[in-house]
Amino acid sequence: MTPASRKVLLVIAGHARDKEDCRLIMAMLGVTPPKPKRRRGRPPVDHGHGHHRTYYKGCRCADCREAYRQYAATLRDKWRNDPTSADRAGHGKSSTYRNHACRCAACKEANRVEVNEYRARRRQRAALAEAGDAR
């Protein structure tokens, strides 16, 4: 769309009372409405249920959960069999310990800290639940 045609459309839209009036004025002047813009990238694909991409889009049905579980397991196996994947993921994180099976000192320590924090949170929730039951 050229800047001049954009100005024409803006003037028409400014004088029109509503959407239908705008269409009528454009038809009288012989101005065609602009084509809707195409979104960038690939067009959306409907994978249907039972696909890990549908799980990514937010579906939590049993088929999509199972498809995602299998996909994630395959991905973790691929990472574990590639010794350089832990380097790319970054050391010193518990996710690298779990997902990439890295057992360097930094990853072991990060996982130990996370497990201890998790256990402390569980103990705290259990204590709060007991205190709530005692009331």
Instruction: Using the alpha-carbon principal axes, give the shape.
Output: elongated
Strand content: under 5%
- Average pLDDT number: 88
The SSE string, one letter per element, is HHHHHHH
Structural class: mainly alpha
Amount of helix? 55-70%
How many DSSP H or I helices? Answer: 7
Low-confidence stretches: none
How many E-type strands? 0
Number of domains: 2
Q: What does the largest sheet look like?
A: none
Q: What does the model show?
A:
The protein is mainly α. It folds into 2 domains: 1-32; 52-134, no CATH class. Helix content is 67%, strand content 0%. It contains 7 helices and no strands. It has helices spanning 3-15, 19-29, 52-56, 62-80, 85-89, 94-100, 105-134. The radius of gyration is 29 Å and the shape is elongated. It starts with a helix and ends with a helix.
Topology:
Blueprint: H1 3-15, H2 19-29, H3 52-56, H4 62-80, H5 85-89, H6 94-100, H7 105-134
Helix pairs in contact: 1-2, 6-7
